Amino acid sequence: QVQLVESGGKLVQAGGSLRLSCAASGLTFSRNAMGWFRQAPGKEREFVATIDWAGLSTYYTDSVKGRFTISRDNAKNTVYLQMNSLKSEDTAVYYCAAGPFALIRGPTGVRSWGQGTQVTVSS
């Protein structure tokens, strides 16, 4: 079965950086768009970033543009989220997602979810 395993979440000070990783198995990784979502306490899960199968196209939610970068390594079946200039409002559980379409724009484009990794930004 498909497994998406996130790692890299931790407590970091505002202004700091983190890199999240998501290792995928049980799917043809290079044929899937990948994405990151996040869910803060008391809020709905929201889209953060997506990347196409080749790593040539990316898309971000407005609040993270210029601070976050999504990338992938198809040889390692891994997708990354580099997060810079972190803010307290970035605090959330971050979820990795895989989908069959060109890009993942929302939950309806997701076929598989990871279990999440906690990112906490202290101000």
Helix and strand arrangement:
Elements lengths: L2 E5 L3 E3 L4 E8 L7 E7 L6 E6 L6 E3 L7 E6 L4 E6 L8 E8 L12 E2 L3 E6 L1
Parallel strand pairs: 2-11
Antiparallel strand pairs: 1-3, 3-8, 4-5, 4-9, 5-6, 7-8, 9-10, 9-11
Short description:
Helices cover about 0% and strands about 50% of the residues. With about 120 residues, the chain is mostly beta strands. Strands 2, 4, 5, 6, 9, 10 and 11 form a 7-stranded mixed sheet that branches. A 4-stranded antiparallel sheet has the order 1-3-8-7, with no helix packed on it.
Query: Which residues form runs of ≥5 with pLDDT under 50?
Result: none
The average pLDDT score comes to 96
Determine the N-to-C terminus distance: 40 Å
What is the overall silhouette? Answer: globular
Number of helices: 0
Strand content is over 45%
Rg: 13 Å
Please trace the helix and strand order, writing H or E for each element: EEEEEEEEEEE
| Biggest pleated-sheet summary | 7 strands, mixed
Describe the structure.
By secondary structure, the protein is an all-beta fold. It contains no helices and eleven strands. The strands form two sheets. Strands 2, 4, 5, 6, 9, 10 and 11 form a seven-stranded mixed beta sheet that branches. Strands 1-3-8-7 form a four-stranded antiparallel beta sheet, with no helix packed on it. It is globular, with a radius of gyration of 13 Å. The mean pLDDT is 96.
